[in-house]
Specification:
2 strands; 298 residues; 15 helices; globular; Arc Repressor Mutant, subunit A; Endonuclease III, domain 1
């Protein structure tokens, strides 16, 4: 079984969401920022912050000139704030080594700090119309169902997943890139994990999962990600205190946001290790690059 590229591209042309990083005047920088922000974060939360970032930092050198503290503060509520520091590091390398232009080929993108296999391929395909497989959770699910007749993809295998997806790509690079975007959109909007809209699917006729009677997924159970009470939540609360402050804050201000002292201390230590906070000489805490010397005693 396979997926009819013509049908999928036609469907995508008629039904794709109008997202700013898909516009005709998109840049490699705009696509890179979107891809970093969209990791594990919904489009609705990303879009307004993406617009703010591109207005404030329209090219990599502009972001590179900002302090890490400014970048973490501007990241706001997107979550996983280490992504902000990785993007800052990548922007610095692009500005210094690539003439302030995001590279177009996968290998060069992979050499940038903080850029992994998915992001490199997504930028190459979506910004520069390169022919390369772009595989996320949605794509893996579509391929598992339409091609292999399985209810879901099961544990990830980078080599297998990339090979499976590459076989489906049209030969012509621009069509391959559109197909990659369409495959991802199909998984996001139609071939969803829990309530797939099979009647609206352009791949319905050739779908191996449909022909097999839509068998239930019988593989390993995926862990449910919770948020309440996790270290992620505590780290976010601690960072919120710093984002809302004009400068360094006292330990007491941080202690007030979470009652479990052991968990709070662990999270505070991890933020310091990750470079998302730093400590001043007088024991207060600040965003990176915003620590100030202790005031002189007169």
């Amino acid at each position: 079984m396979s997926i009819d590229a013509d049908l999928l591209i036609e469907w995508f042309t008629d039904n794709a969401r109008e997202l700013p990083w898909r516009s005709a005047d998109r840049t490699g920088w705009g696509v890179l920022v979107s891809e970093i922000m969209l990791q594990q974060t919904p489009v609705a939360r990303v879009e307004p912050i993406w617009h703010d970032w591109l207005r404030r930092w329209p090219k990599p050198s502009a972001l590179a000139a900002a302090s890490q503290g400014e970048v973490v503060r501007a990241w706001g509520k997107l979550g996983y704030p280490r992504r902000a520091l990785r993007l800052h590091a990548a922007a610095t390398a692009i500005a210094e080594q690539h003439g302030d232009v995001v590279p177009s080929d996968v290998d060069t993108l992979l050499a940038l700090p903080g850029i992994g296999a998915y992001t490199a391929r997504a930028v190459a395909a979506f910004a520069y119309r390169q022919r390369c497989p772009v595989v996320d959770t949605n794509v893996r699910r579509v391929v598992a169902r339409a091609v292999h007749g399985a209810g879901d993809a099961g544990p990830a295998s980078t080599t297998r997943d990339l090979a499976d997806t590459e076989k489906l790509l049209p030969i012509e690079p621009r069509r391959a890139a559109v197909f990659s975007a369409a495959l991802m959109e199909l998984g996001q909007m139609i071939c969803t994990a829990r309530t797939p809209r099979c009647a609206d699917c352009p791949a319905f006729e050739g779908c191996a999962w449909q022909r097999a009677g839509r068998p239930a997924y019988a593989g390993p159970v995926k862990p449910v990600q919770r948020f309440a009470g996790t270290d992620r939540q505590v780290r976010g609360k601690l960072l919120d205190v710093l984002r809302d402050a004009d400068g360094p804050v006292t330990r007491a201000a941080l202690d007030a946001v979470w009652t479990d002292a052991g968990q709070r201390d662990r999270c505070l230590d991890s933020l310091l290790v990750d470079g998302l906070l730093e400590q001043t000489e007088d024991g207060r805490f600040a965003l990176p690059g915003e620590a100030q010397p202790a005031p002189a005693i007169r």
